[in-house]
UniProtKB/TrEMBL annotation:
Alphabetical list of NCBIfam families matching this protein: PRK09589.1
PANTHER family: ARYL-PHOSPHO-BETA-D-GLUCOSIDASE BGLA, GLYCOSYL HYDROLASE
Domain of life of the native organism: Bacteria
Name the record gives this protein: Aryl-6-phospho-beta-glucosidase
EC number: 3.2.1.86
Source taxonomy: Bacteria, Bacillati, Bacillota, Bacilli, Bacillales
Cellular component GO terms, alphabetical: cytosol
Assigned protein family: Belongs to the glycosyl hydrolase 1 family.
One of the record's GO molecular function terms: 6-phospho-beta-glucosidase activity
Catalytic residue positions: E373
Entry keyword annotation includes Aminoacyl-tRNA synthetase: no
One GO BP: carbohydrate catabolic process
Keywords recorded for this protein, A-Z: Glycosidase, Hydrolase
Length: 474
């Protein structure tokens, strides 16, 4: 393992900060999402309704506790912290000309606090937090004008923090929106809710095209602000395995992977894969895509690939395969994999899949990879101020071991690893507090009750040792 390996943790503004209407912050798309559960989808409401509970409004009040929390991250020895800048703290509505100084100051203070402990901020520009106003007024990323609004936001923060932040990520899990049947993804990626009269896939490609252009432009302009910037993309990396050696299963798995890798293909190579252009032609799609757009794509390719890794999928056309009917992923070819276990939330546990996918990405792109999320969502039991989270330690241990093998034996260039939800956040997909990820327990429940007091879990000390020994104890 390299000496400067970036061990750390990851969070996102809307899942931890709270203070949703403090310091001039505007309403974001996450602010209109209610709480759900594994079996009950989060609702996306038309504005904020007094009768509903919105868990992201208060989060875990990282906004008010960040000094205490950063101190705990430092105690664990974090080399970096991945978080996002809430767009709505900087441009509350998204279409203002001047930024909100109070929001900018908050991140100045947060980054200073991190740097004081030698913790490098790794910053995501868009992590499901676009201004709600941009949805209501412009239709979200359906609208080309979003490119300019995003550019203004990105350049404002890159200028402001050019001496504090080196690692940037543009759009979190940009490929989530390829899952068309669950509204949570088009909403959080693009601020879009499909109507019955449109071809979802065509709308999706249009929105993503605007995001690709915005991302490439930011990479290109970011380098002018500071040539040392390292700017990456984020792929939700989920291997697709064929259940059987039936050639139809193999082909299906390949197609699923291709659809996922389409996103990194464009970010990394700077142009659209020919087969997708062909598909659009065949389907009669008319995408708004100019020569100038295509030029920007080729000029703003990413420096590294950020991946989030939690699980693998298995697909099959075989009638005997056990269909998962996954509410979250909504794909009727997804089937149960008899060789892997799953979490209480139905996410498969597949450490080898991490090594497999690191190799696949390395073979395809030969770019540095940053694992910007990996973690174990679990309903921890809190007993007399203590959390014995041996299941989490086991999960992380197994995944880190596979990452190490990929680095040491397979020669994959992994530059860092940040554990998702290093302090218990609000779950993105369910809005629950109960689905915990942290090394630090936060006293808050699904209904928003609790003291918000922080407690170290057993995994806290364990991860401290991993970092201290640069992973050699794994
Ligand atoms: C990723 C997101 O999809 O997975 C995070 O980038 C999210 O925002 C994480 O929290 C885990 O998902 P969940 O639904 O368990 O919180």
């Amino acid at each position: 393992m390299r000496d400067n390996f970036l061990w750390g943790g990851a969070i996102a503004a809307h899942q931890v900060e709270g203070a949703w209407n403090v310091g001039g912050k505007g309403v974001s798309i996450a602010d209109v999402m209610t709480a759900g559960t594994k079996d009950k989808a989060r609702k996306i409401t038309d504005g904020i309704l007094p009768s509903e509970y919105y868990p992201n409004h208060d989060g875990i009040d990282f906004y008010g506790h960040y000094k205490e929390d950063v101190k705990l991250f430092a105690e664990m020895g974090f080399k970096c912290l991945r978080t996002s800048i809430a767009w709505t703290r900087i441009f509350p509505n998204g279409d203002e000309v001047e930024p909100n100084e109070e929001g900018l100051k908050f991140y100045d203070e947060l980054f200073d606090e991190l740097l004081r402990y030698g913790i490098e901020p790794v910053i995501t520009l868009a992590h499901f937090e676009m201004p709600y106003h941009l949805v209501k007024e412009y239709g979200g990323w359906r609208n080309r004008r979003l490119i300019d609004f995003f550019k203004r936001f990105a350049i404002t923060v890159m200028e402001r923090y050019k001496d504090k932040v080196k690692y940037w990520l543009t759009f979190n899990e940009i490929n989530n929106q390829r899952i068309l049947d669950n509204p949570i993804y088009s909403w959080t990626n693009s601020g879009i809710i499909y109507t019955d009269n449109e071809t979802k896939l065509e709308t999706m490609y249009q929105a993503v095209h605007y995001q690709f252009v915005a991302s490439a432009w930011v990479v290109k302009e970011g380098k002018k602000i500071n040539p040392d910037f390292q700017i990456g993309c984020v792929l939700a990396a989920t291997p697709n395995y064929p259940l059987t050696s039936d050639p139809a299963d193999i082909l299906l798995a390949q197609k699923e992977d291709d659809q996922q890798l389409f996103f990194t293909d464009v970010h990394v190579r700077g142009h659209y894969p020919k087969r997708f252009v062909k598909e659009w032609e065949n389907k009669g799609y008319h995408l708004d895509m100019t020569e100038e757009d295509l030029k920007i794509l080729s000029e703003g390719t990413v420096d590294y690939i950020g991946i989030t890794y939690y699980l693998s999928n298995t697909v099959s056309v075989r009638p005997e395969a056990k269909c998962l009917n996954d509410v979250l992923l909504g794909n009727d070819t997804l089937v149960e994999n008899p060789y892997v276990q799953a979490t209480e939330w139905g996410w498969s546990i597949d450490p080898i899949g991490l090594r497999y996918y690191l190799n696949l990405l390395n073979n395809r792109y030969e770019l540095p990879i940053f694992i910007v999320e990996n973690g174990f969502g679990y309903a921890d039991t809190f007993e007399n101020g203590h959390v014995y989270d041996k299941e989490r330690i086991e999960y992380l241990q197994q995944h880190i071991a596979q990452m190490k093998t990929a680095i040491v034996e397979d020669g994959v260039d992994v530059i860092g690893y940040t554990v998702w939800g290093c302090i218990d956040p609000i779950s993105f997909t369910t809005g629950e507090m109960k689905k915990r990820y942290g090394f630090i327990y936060v006293d808050r429940d699904n209904q928003g009750n609790g003291t918000l007091k922080r407690y170290k879990k057993d995994s806290f000390e364990w991860y401290q040792q991993v970092i201290k020994t640069n992973g050699s104890n794994i």
